[in-house]
Specification:
By secondary structure, the protein is mainly alpha-helical. It has helices at about 5-25, 25-55, 60-80, 90-110, 120-145, 150-185.
């Protein structure tokens, strides 16, 4: 097991930890969740970067990287929907796309094809990470004593920005799913 693959698998561990922390609802856990999500997001960049620069690109990495991304993002979106920070329909749309693409990839693997993530999928993941980061920062600021003086003034605007970021993430998620299946049909 090489370092890029360890970084990839670490996102699954971080996903479990994030769910636990966000469900607790405590300010300290929200801060820890934001930090852990930031670290997990960095592993998404560095696993691919290290694999390419160190010549460690593997089929395992090509398969597990998008799966680890999906586990991290779906578990985070699921808990954010559960605690009322995003709309359930957003989570459902994202989940349908992610599960559909994952099932398709696994089917392709059974047929002997390993499909690496495409550019649209990577952009989708970045947009999702930005949306989640904004929501987690909102949760941190909401309970932060030194933020209370200005937070009340920007709370509704911040929620609006969070909603816009989530809508962008949902649109890019749907687009990248359509793009994936369109390109996949061209392969077969």
């Amino acid at each position: 097991m090489n370092l890029p693959n360890v970084l990839t698998l670490s996102r699954i561990f971080f996903a479990v930890l994030l769910v636990f922390l966000l469900e607790s609802g405590s300010p300290v856990c929200d801060i820890l969740a934001a930090i852990i999500f930031g670290v997990a997001s960095l592993t998404d960049f560095y696993d691919g970067y290290l694999a390419k620069t160190m010549g460690l690109v593997s089929n395992f990495g090509k398969i597990m990287d998008p799966i680890a991304d999906k586990v991290l993002m779906l578990s985070t979106f699921g808990v954010l929907a559960h605690i009322g920070m995003i709309a359930w329909w957003m989570f459902i749309v994202i989940a349908i796309r992610e599960i559909g693409v994952t099932v398709s990839r696994l089917y392709a693997i059974r047929q002997g094809q390993v499909l690496a993530a495409e550019r649209a999928g990577k952009i989708k993941t970045v947009s999702q990470m930005i949306a989640v980061s904004a929501i987690l920062l909102y949760l941190v600021a909401k309970y932060c004593a030194w933020c209370s003086s200005w937070f009340n003034n920007v709370q509704s605007t911040w929620l609006g920005v969070n909603n816009v970021l989530m809508l962008v993430a949902v649109v890019l998620t749907v687009y990248s799913g359509i793009d994936y299946f369109r390109k996949k049909e061209g392969i077969e």
